[in-house]
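By way of example, what follows is a protein record of this kind.
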Amino acid sequence: MGYANIKIKSVAKPEDLQRWEEHMLEKTKCWNSFCLGIYSEHELRAVYVVKEGEPDIVYITTLCEDCIKDMAAHDILVDEKRLMIESLNNRQ
């Protein structure tokens, strides 16, 4: 495992933040490798993402609001260990 460029599909529900934390057995934080870390706990969001070039698997990870907003302008690079599988898209 290594790092993956991700693309955000959508922001998840607030309860998904807690679900991610319970599944991963660690506190949430912004997992974007390029994040400056200047955020408060209430600015963290769970997000549905896909790995760049691999749209068949939807994951949940946690990011801060600033990284979510800056996604269009900058890459988001996340350690694959911080991606929780949410669903598999139908393959044809």
